[in-house]
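Final report, results section. Input specification for complex C-07:
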Amino acid sequence: MKNISFINLEKVLNSYNERKGWVCPSFLNQIHMKYRVTSLTVEQTREWGKQLGERLRGGDVIALIGDLGAGKTAFAQGIGEALGVIGPMTSPTFTLIHEYTAQLKGTQFRLVHMDLYRLQRPEEAEVIGVEDAFVDDAVCLIEWPKIIEDYLPEDRLDVEIIGSGEQVREIIIYARDLDWEFRLKDMT
Ligand SMILES: Nc1ncnc2c1ncn2[C@@H]1O[C@H](COP(=O)(O)OP(=O)(O)OP(=O)(O)O)[C@@H](O)[C@H]1O
Ligand SMILES: [Mg+2]
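Structure output:
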């Protein structure tokens, strides 16, 4: 009998990761499935945000990870567009939190957009009421989420944007559970 331990799992995983679009079936990677797409322009990044936005529902928390100028706010704007946010969605860099009225399939809820770059200590998250946004009647988008990682719900979605300036962006979406896998699998 063939000894399957000779299969180089790393190599198998990498070969999936080389592909565009959804890349890794969960039986090979128990932790999560990664989706990887590229974006050449800010409009494309917004469009990917919009595609994700169409798959969201109340209670979702999205952590937006990436360097300064990666395109986190652009991605958030695309989500806002999908959720029917009226008016411009500007960066909450100085205000920390912006809140919008959003709508999805006829249900109204809050779209909460945070930028925690200026937070100094995790405890400040309580003061500004970060967890108030982790409720069923809100969708919460968090730029610079690292400082509050202990507060973040396990079933959040992590979206990482790699690249900045004139570079092509790589957008990696980490589905942490089967529910996210199911909701994202037809993103094209
Ligand atoms: N493919 C791309 N995707 C997104 N933004 C791009 C792309 N190419 C160029 N850009 C430019 O990069 C900038 C991204 O700005 P944005 O405010 O969305 O970044 P950010 O990640 O939110 O930064 P910050 O950490 O400062 O909040 C914009 O000026 C945009 O025009
Ligand atoms: Mg931003």
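The CA atoms of residues 73 and 179 lie 25 Å apart. The first strand starts at residue 21 and ends at 22. This concludes the modelling results for the funded period.
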